[in-house]
Amino acid sequence: MLTVTSVNVNGLRAAAKKGYVEWLAGTAADVVCLQEVRAEPGQLPEAVRAPEGWHAVHAPAAAKGRAGVSVLSRRVPDAVRIGFGCAEFEDSGRYAEIDLPGLTVASLYLPSGEVGTERQAEKERFMAAFLPYLTGLRERAAAGGREVLVCGDWNIAHREADLKNWRANRKKAGFLPEERDWLGRVYAEAGYADVVRELHPEQDGPYSWWSYRGRAFDNDSGWRIDLHVASRGLAGRAVKAEVERAPSHELRWSDHAPVTVSYDLAAG
């Protein structure tokens, strides 16, 4: 059994002071993918930068205080790669992947975008470059008898069931028709599957992000944008998915919750 968790920490230094360290010490995950770390390794306390019992890969952004992804694994990775070969995003702190036996695991922080701004244009350029990379990654892995898992904050809700107030967000970044179509291409053309949705096909949510504004968390008015996107062979081996939603607003250490999936690698 392989258990993988993905979580946008909304600033790792802040999260570490609010409960992330204790959460990591108690998790049964074999791999943890972090997004929006917003810190260089040297800015992190040693216990956070290199936690005991973990091998940590950090990909900070060249832009200080922005983005940043990490991958923590119980075993030493066979290989590590930062970025996906696109010059514009090579040092953006948005993608890192590791090789484990029979499996490549990646942490992704896709740009959030904002309609009518350069941020949306950046998101569109990222998506245009990332889709062919995903296709090639899966094809190369398949040729070597390997599976692929890209975890992270994809910043796109694919279906109406993936956000509470979908009607009010039809013209907003994260639920635009062209973004949803693009994510559909990741599944239909690039050969991946939305693991949590396949395990919970009829459920609204389960949501993984709630705004700090108002009572979004208390009302479970959230978005499902933190995804496990897997090659189909691995997706078929997923046996359990859980959003580790905090018991109360006060106990949250991020505006996102960890999304944890267990894969039975002996299945199939």
Automatic annotation (TrEMBL):
Keywords: Hydrolase, Magnesium, Metal-binding. PROSITE patterns: AP_NUCLEASE_F1_4. Residues 6-256 form the Endonuclease/exonuclease/phosphatase domain. It is an enzyme of class 3 (hydrolase). CDD domains: Nape_like_AP-endo. Its cofactor is Mg(2+). GO terms for molecular function: double-stranded DNA 3'-5' DNA exonuclease activity. Its EC number is 3.1.11.2. Pfam families: Exo_endo_phos. PANTHER family: EXODEOXYRIBONUCLEASE III. Belongs to the DNA repair enzymes AP/ExoA family. This is Exodeoxyribonuclease III. It comes from Streptomyces zingiberis. The gene is xth.
